[in-house]
Amino acid sequence: MGVVRIGQTEVAYELRRSAAASERRITVTPGHVEVLALTTDDDAEIDAFLDRKRQWLFNTLRELETKTSKRAVVPRFMTGSKIPYRGRMARLTVRRHDGAHIEIDYRNGFLVDLPSWVREADQDAIVATEIKLWLKRRVRRDVMDIAAAYRRRFDLRPRTIRVADMKTGWGACGPTGSILINWTLVFAPKTVLEYVVAHELAHLTVRSHGPDFWAHMATLMPDYERPKGWLDTHQGALDAAFLDVSDKASALATGHG
């Protein structure tokens, strides 16, 4: 292990050399920094590379710390763990049964029944995958129910409405009236999900975000400012990365040079 000093902070890193590498690289992952060097590099060349990347490394570590502090932390998918759902942390119970299939239910908490063929080493990844699938089905049903209610009350009829994994934004209304809703809103209170659905439905009538739009929103959802405020405050916490057990070691960023 090597150490690079950034101000008053010492950052430990693992040095790895590769004959196949064509350039040096720093990879930052939660709790780990790896420096990939060329087999021909001597200590001075590695130190010079780290010196050039000092500011990048500092910024990347700070960004990673900010992101991870906002994410839900589920160290193990086992009985007693907490899963974010509809604005609160729900208890997870994992049980074994003699059936052939994995079963999942929600009764004041997540209940996952695993058959005996599931190996202990695979439990975290399987439980996380099943919960993710369940959450996506749940939020799709919620979105369709909300949209149906607004259709009955206000005759708002999008061309299509679907729930998707959106990289940015919470919803979108296309020029043809097709609506997208971000599935990670399942982690927010249901009123917040309703606000986003109503917001995109409102764009069927008013495309801009000017005064006319917000006046229209007030007719659709008179108390929209409260869920809007919740989303503005907590949006950084609506992150599904904790469910990607197989991807926990993936890099936030990589520096080349």
TrEMBL record:
All residue ranges annotated as the YgjP-like metallopeptidase domain in the record: 25-234
Domain of life: Bacteria
InterPro entries: UTP_pyrophosphatase-like, YgjP-like_metallopeptidase
Pfam families referenced in this protein's UniProt entry, alphabetically: YgjP-like
Entry protein name: M48 family metallopeptidase
Native source species: Brevundimonas vitisensis
